[in-house]
Design brief:
By secondary structure, the chain is of the alpha+beta class. It folds into 2 domains: 245 residues, FAD/NAD(P)-binding domain; 130 residues, Jelly Rolls (Sandwich). 28% of the residues lie in helices and 28% in strands. The chain has 13 helices and 26 strands. The strands form 6 sheets. It has a 7-stranded antiparallel beta sheet with strand order 15-23-20-25-18-17-16, with helices on one face. A hairpin with a 6-residue loop joins strand 13 and strand 14. It is elongated, with a radius of gyration of 28 Å. The chain binds flavin-adenine dinucleotide. Flavin-adenine dinucleotide (FAD) binds next to helix 1, strand 3 and strand 9.
């Protein structure tokens, strides 16, 4: 008995699934809520791993007719200064290209191929999935029209939910999950006729996680996980079908889930942290006002480690101090534009805070840098910055960073990144004075804290801790005896 599949949603994922299923000899129908599969959207960038699947479906020539093979990708800071440049797709040695393409054109290529290969009846438009019932033998789906009237009830072995971010299928399967939560980031998309820039096939991503612009041409002239899901699903179902074992459909769906859940979750988590574009934020944090030579901010090797996703293995840029240290070359206490010299401080300010000497070196709306001298025995108890990243560059001596149960010893020349929310204490356990340069970003609120502490009539640890909470520094409660 042949496995029959209902695909809900005629977007990129749904149409690619239909083609992949047909290629493996499986019977399938696509149900789309819109009255027609129009060519909606603006630009979409499709990476070689997804294009490889579409090439296997025989669609490369059609994609070439409507899209552009991306030549290069350039990361820039918000001033347009170049941080990273690399070739893409076949130019970078992949077997297939990366395409910059109008999302609607890509959808049109897939729609036309489905209609040709599966027949005009394979796509039913004006059919919105209203609900479905699953039993031991399969699934029954109910489709309604725009007025809400039931127009079709369909029985099949498998129902694939490819119905986008506001998925009815997902909501039915995980009713307690609720709607997707907006994280506060707004995206505007647009397209315009414009003369070619750079190579005519260049893609630019400028600015960090706070605000960025993504620019690329999508035609000559003036996200790919859905595709991989489609292939993996068709393969799992076809293997079950080849065994002529309809009971194994459930097992096939489990194998599909096992194959795809890990990789897609990893991508989602990586992208929440910025993914390869995190290199822009890393450079921005170290040089918020721009740079003359990006090599002096982060070396090529350090930038590459972030872009290629092996920053953690390379020993810097992610979570705990033991893994966030990188040895700097060519830096001094005045590194970065607008950071003043080692011996000087802003307006000759010198604060003595609980025996530690602090000299402000640079202050802007976005960041604050200061010079700190820690006599032997200095201990700044564990605290965290809920909204700021902190960087500590050890100029002289040694500093122990206490994070949870882990201690990390930083030496002169080490730069340690303490991501926002990361608890850390600072301890000079050596017998000599330690000198460090600190940065916090974004905002210069810590400067205001130091001014307020300096103005205290009596500087006690309790008074300092009480003030700190008002300036986005949270001290952890002392461990119970
Ligand atoms: C109109 C539109 C424009 C887009 N434009 C862009 C763009 O310009 N750039 C970009 O990078 N990404 C764009 N996207 C998102 C991108 O296409 C997807 O994130 C990605 O391709 C994954 O595809 P998908 O098939 O999972 O979901 P989608 O492409 O979102 O497709 C989901 C499909 O399911 C249909 N559907 C939803 N609920 C039901 C239901 N209950 N019953 C039947 N059908 C249903 C929707 O009408 C839609 O056609 C757009 C998506 C849409 C829907």
């Amino acid at each position: 008995m042949q496995t029959t599949v209902l695909v809900v949603g005629g977007g990129i994922g749904g149409l690619a699934s239909a083609l992949a299923l047909q290629r493996r000899g499986l019977d399938c129908r696509v149900f789309e809520q819109s009255p027609r599969i129009g060519e909606l959207g603006v630009g979409i960038n499709t990476l070689p791993h997804a294009i490889g699947e579409l090439a296997e479906l025989g669609l490369l020539a059609r994609l070439d007719a409507v899209g552009l093979r991306t030549y290069e990708l350039i990361y820039m800071n918000r001033f347009g200064q170049e941080i990273w440049r690399e070739l893409r797709g076949t130019h970078a040695g992949h077997a297939v290209p990366q395409f910059s393409i109008h999302r609607g054109m890509l959808q049109g290529v897939l729609r036309d191929a489905v209609t040709e290969r599966l027949g005009p009846a394979a796509i039913s438009t004006g059919r919105r999935l209203a609900g479905f019932d699953q039993d031991e033998d399969g699934v029954t789906a109910r489709f309604v029209d725009a007025s809400g009237a039931t127009v079709e009830t369909v029985r099949a072995d498998v129902l694939v939910g490819a119905d986008g971010i506001h998925s009815t299928v997902r909501a039915s399967l995980t009713p307690g999950e609720g709607s997707p939560r907006w994280n506060g980031t707004m995206l505007w998309r647009g397209a315009t006729d414009w003369p070619a820039f750079l190579t005519g096939r260049s893609m630019i991503i400028a600015g960090g996680m706070e605000a960025k612009v993504v620019l690329y041409p999508i035609a000559e002239g003036a996200a790919g996980q859905a595709t991989l899901d489609a292939r993996a699903l068709a393969d799992a179902l076809a293997d079950a079908d080849a065994l002529a074992d309809a009971d194994d459909v459930t097992g096939a769906l489990s194998r599909y889930e096992q194959a795809r859940l890990g990789p897609t979750s990893e991508i989602v988590h990586s992208n929440r942290g910025g993914g390869p574009e995190g290199v822009i934020d890393a450079v921005e944090a170290l040089a918020p006002d721009g740079f003359d030579d990006v090599e002096m901010v982060l070396s090529h090797g350090e930038r590459e480690a972030i872009v290629r996703g092996y920053a953690q293995k390379a020993g810097f840029a992610v979570s705990d101090p033991g893994q966030t240290t990188t040895r700097r070359k060519g830096m001094d206490a005045s590194t970065g534009p607008d950071v003043i010299g080692a011996e000087a401080s802003i307006d000759n300010i010198k604060w003595n805070i609980l025996g530690q000497i602090y000299r402000p070196k640079q202050l802007s709306e976005r960041s604050f840098a200061w010079h700190a001298t820690f006599p032997p025995g200095t201990f700044v108890p564990p605290h965290f910055h809920p909204t700021q990243d902190e960087y500590v560059y050890v100029l002289d001596g040694e500093l122990t960073l206490v994070a949870g149960d882990d201690d990390h010893l930083a030496h002169a020349g080490d730069l340690v990144r303490l991501p926002m929310g990361r608890p850390h204490g600072l301890f000079n356990r050596s017998g000599a004075t330690t000198v460090c340069l600190f940065w916090v970003t974004p905002t210069g609120r810590l400067y205001e804290l130091f001014v307020a502490i300096d103005a205290l009539e009596e500087q006690t640890p309790d008074a300092v801790v009480a003030l700190a909470g008002k300036h986005e520094v949270e001290f952890l409660p002392p461990p119970s005896a």
